[in-house]
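Hey there, shall we discuss this one?
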Amino acid sequence: MKFFKKSKDEEPTAPGQVAIKKRSRVPGVMITQFVEELPEGMTTPDFTRKPIALTIQEGKCAVFKAIVSGNPTPSVHWTRSNGEVTEPERYKMVSDPATPNEHYIEMPEVSPEQADTYKCFATNEYGKAVVTANLNVIEMGYKKSKAMKDIQLYSSCLRFVDPDKDDKKDGEIDPRFWDVLMSADKKDYEKICAEFGVTNFRWMLKTLNAKKVEREEEQAKYVENLSNLKHIEVKPGGGAEFEFDMSLKDPNVKIFLFKDGVMVPFSVETEEKHFLKKTGRKFTFGIKDLAGDDEGLYQVMVEGVLIFSTDLKVPMVDFLVKIQEVKATEREDAMFECVLSSPMSKIQWTGRNQPCEQGEKFDIEVSEDMLIHRLVVKDCAKLDGGIYSVCAGIKSCNAFLVVEADNDPATKGKKKVHKFSMAFSSFKSLNFESAPSFLVPLKTHSTPESYECYMSCAVRGDPTPHVTWYRNNISLNTNTNYLITNTCGVCSMLILRVGPKDTGEYKVIADNALGRAECSTKLTVNGIKNKIKVLLYCIEI
């Protein structure tokens, strides 16, 4: 038995109690047992699911979820490292009597000052379990008072900017900008403007409204109604689709599909490379077997009138670690896991040709850096066996889930503890040692001031290389202004709010006993003048 000194967060044990540290099946969980021997049938608290670290935008709803176990049923409470969670309007502790082992803490309209390390405690008379999770909050936009201070600060060195004009004349802006914008949701306007380098929102909105009126007048010649526009999405199986509802005045008019201004032939009802499926008023256009050259702006025209535009971006991502065959006994949980080369917030899981969604049957988990993705098949039955696949961008992989019958009469029909086994092919004795090398180098970045910037590269080597980030030859590994992670060789750095001081050359150096490799890139932060235009717009609204 190993004894240890209790931290200030732990409740003191009663006279006669001990504090014995135990290992949990879930990584990151600390368990303290209060008695030397547990009575028969009694257990200390534990977490069958721990809260997952969150990085979330300001104003969104942040939720931590924990599932606990233990007999008797543990009581649960939450704390944070630098503050209290006692304000009911900011922190809501939720538990459902129907599922007494599930506990939540909700933070509606989360604010930057709530960013912290949160702890969840589960306690019963035989012990206590504790787990932590980090909450990072990304500040969005500007407060009006802050914007006024910024304008006063910069006004002494800047000429006056006319809010009704943009440095880029209408003819100098990529024509795709207006096509994409007129079919986009309002919430995406800011992202689209940043992508095309347009900084004057007031001018953009004024011009956009005029172009929309002109477009609607042209469409009225052939279209009675246009609605339910859904932009292009990559689908499981390596295809992509977009759709809309349209009523035509003349059903015999000609419909055309263009990609980057070039007409693309398509089949109707039969799925060739490009195809159209029509059901009543719904028009669904699809692309099969996506490849990198399928990326571009797709437009649908009726006769000579533009109806809909949507921009397809094929995520440049691959699997560094693919899912492997998993074996489980009936009533056990089974887990598939993969590692991506670039972060993605969501990938598509499919089991036995059916989508897998978060719910009673499946748990879908994503690591904080969005590189590691897991699918947990809960309470396996024989019917759950089969092929499971995962799709990330245009890449996919699959593996079998083998569910074996439970032949133990003592446990047959009872829920098993979490147990995972993965079947790997046999390996020959080989020497895999190698000097570091970059599979994916850093890319050049140009980011508007006050936006976030994400850089990543992929490195390999054996022994595992030590990785150091530099800006202008100064090490960043201990700089808390930069969020640096290294997962399975994918090295990433996140700057939550880019400023002028972040401009410069960024370098990654990887070294081990066999050698050293490096790659570098430059980060350019858009000038102060562009920031003033955004500030003027924010004050205007």
Notes: The mean pLDDT is 80. The chain has five domains: 20-138, 175-221, 223-312, 320-404, 434-526. Helices lie at 144-155, 176-182, 189-196, 201-219, 528-540. The CA atoms of residues 245 and 281 lie 5 Å apart.
